[in-house]
């Protein structure tokens, strides 16, 4: 990946992936079932998308809506799926789980990254529901492979999280703040000037790449609009 600002786009299938790459996406987040805010895709879906594009793919590891990993059986199932995806060639992932009191679920996270074997991964928007986001960052600071936080800065979205995002960007390099901040969650084009001025360099879109809604595919033109705005 080049030094330009990163544009990551959610892809559900090969058509999404091809359109996103053609529009200028640098990376895709692969999910299924956006009605549940994005769950783990099948191995077959990953294989088909991998064959369709040549940009990096980050595969979601989550079985149910929300930010709980589930019981021991569910965590074991998720580990099995991660192993299967690794065997199919997946080498980048997205995950993140909280306990009921808003702390990082270290047991579930550590079980997964043990089988990811050093792969790069994103801690997703669970950080926006954490009891203490600074404490979460410090607890995860030494996790192998963690190189990105997907965050809106607030549970309610980027509109309410702009100040937090700017403040965290200013702490880059401090313990827990080394990973890239990938801004996503209600992100709009009009947010970009302030975010870019604050030093943010990575952006994540889903619905914004689909002008006709989630029932329609990614639109290459929409992705290109974001690419051009980010690069301006």
Short descriptors:
232 residues; alpha/beta; TIM Barrel; eight-stranded parallel β-sheet; 8 helices; 8 strands; 36% helix; 16% strand; globular; CutC-like; copper ion binding; CutC-like_dom_sf
Return the string of H and E elements. Answer: EHEHEHEHEHEHEHEH
Number of domains: 1
The helicity comes to 25-40%
Biggest sheet: strands, sense, closure? Answer: 8 strands, parallel
Describe, in plain words, how this protein is organized in 3D.
With about 230 residues, the chain is an alpha/beta fold. The protein has one domain: TIM Barrel, CATH 3.20.20.380. Helix content is about 35%, strand content about 15%. The chain is built from eight helices and eight strands; from the N terminus they run E-H-E-H-E-H-E-H-E-H-E-H-E-H-E-H. Strands 7-6-5-4-3-2-1-8 form an eight-stranded parallel beta sheet, with helices on one face. Strand 5, helix 5 and strand 6 form a beta-alpha-beta unit. The longest helix is centred in the middle third of the chain and has 16 residues. It starts with 5 loop residues before the first strand and ends with a helix.
């Amino acid at each position: 990946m080049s030094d330009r600002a990163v544009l990551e786009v959610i892809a559900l299938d090969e058509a999404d992936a091809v359109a996103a790459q053609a529009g200028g996406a640098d990376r895709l987040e692969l999910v299924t079932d956006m009605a549940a805010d994005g769950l783990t895709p099948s191995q077959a879906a990953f294989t088909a998308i991998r064959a369709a594009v040549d940009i990096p793919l980050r595969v979601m590891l989550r079985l149910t809506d929300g930010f709980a990993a589930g019981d021991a059986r569910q965590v074991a199932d998720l580990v099995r799926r991660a192993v299967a995806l690794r065997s199919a060639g997946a080498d980048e992932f997205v995950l993140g789980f909280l306990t009921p009191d808003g702390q990082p679920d270290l047991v579930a996270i550590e079980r997964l990254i043990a089988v990811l074997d050093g792969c790069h991964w994103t801690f997703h928007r669970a950080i926006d529901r954490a009891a203490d986001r600074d404490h979460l960052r410090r607890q995860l600071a030494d996790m192998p492979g963690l190189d990105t936080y997907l965050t809106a800065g607030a549970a309610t979205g980027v509109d309410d999280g702009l100040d937090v995002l700017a403040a965290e960007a200013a702490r880059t390099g401090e313990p827990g703040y080394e990973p890239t901040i990938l801004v996503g969650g209600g992100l709009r084009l009009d947010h970009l000037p302030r975010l870019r001025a604050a030093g943010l360099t990575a952006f994540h879109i889903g619905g914004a790449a689909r002008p006709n809604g989630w029932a329609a595919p990614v639109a290459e033109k929409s992705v290109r609009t974001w690419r051009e705005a980010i690069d301006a």
